[in-house]
Amino acid sequence: MKHFHHIAPLVSVLAVAATTAHAYEPAGTPPDWDSPMGKPMLNARLLTDRMEAGFDDEIDTYVWDVQGWYGGDRDRLWLKSEGEGEQGKSPESAELQVLYSHLFSPFWDWQVGVRQDFKPTPNRTSFVLGLQGVVPYEFEWDSALFVSDEGNLSARVEAEYDLNITQRWVLQPRMEVNAAFSEDRAIGVGTGVNSSELGLRLRYHFRREFAPYVGISWENLYGDTKDFARDEGEPTTITSVVVGLRLWF
Asked: Quick check: helix, strand or coil at residue 62?
């Protein structure tokens, strides 16, 4: 009992100190967390998802699909560019998107901005409203609605999945579907689902940032879009062996 009388005052002092310390902690903050200081960190990334050449019995093609962003964890500025054409010739399609992106839930961003089509002609400028993220089973998803300066509404959905065979070998199935809600005959686009691309690519990572790949791609046109292409003497179905490079910085 004598020892208790000596310890009791010390216990009281520690209790008061602990109570005072917790009074200054932000609500919901674990006591072992450091207080946030400074502004959110800004980062940048550039990804060349596809830089490839395709080889078909009738036509040899090239494709690029590049995107990059700058910003923090929640808010970012995105640049996206993609296009394609016949080897040895100027691009048949080429576009650039400038987007503001906001993370609204884990793994999901909504995006808004502008898309400029440089090919085909006549050029089109479109308002963009997009949704990008990761769906269950880790499929990467990128979808967008476009409203052109001619008042035409169209949509695009892209999905891909990385199947890790080993630490260096990755097999990637990929799908892209394009649709239009109104006809734009001037650029050869009909109403409804107008084109799709299914691909299967096998890449080898010499480093995380550097991965050449080989694969196969099936491209198809549908409906009036198919008829417009046929009238112009263009192929409506292309099955290609592809060789390319994936890079990120």
From this structure: strand
Q: Are 210 and 216 in contact (CB under 8 A)?
A: no
The amino acid occupying position 147 is V
Closest of 217, 209, 205, 210 to residue 242, by C-alpha: 217
Phi then psi dihedrals of residue 191, to 5 deg: -75, 145
Q: Which two tokens stand for residue 212?
A: 């050449």
Tokens of 132: 């990008």
* Percentage of the chain lying above the pLDDT 70 cut: 84
CB atoms within 10 A of CB 38: 5
Strands 163-164 vs 153-160: parallel, antiparallel or unpaired? unpaired
Phi and psi for 168 in degrees, rounded to 5?
-110, -30
- Collect all residues with Cβ–Cβ distance below 8 Å to 146 and sequence separation of at least 6: 115, 126, 127, 128, 153, 154, 155, 156
**Domains of the chain (ranges plus CATH)?**
44-248 (2.40.160.40)
* pLDDT computed for residue 6 by the predictor: 43
What is the distance in angstroms between the CA of the first residue and the CA of the last residue of the chain? 69
Instruction: Compute the average pLDDT of residues 123-131.
Output: 98
Residue 166's contacts (CB-CB under 8 Å, 6 or more residues apart) are: none
What are the pLDDT digits (tens) for 141-163? 999 999 999 999 999 999 999 99
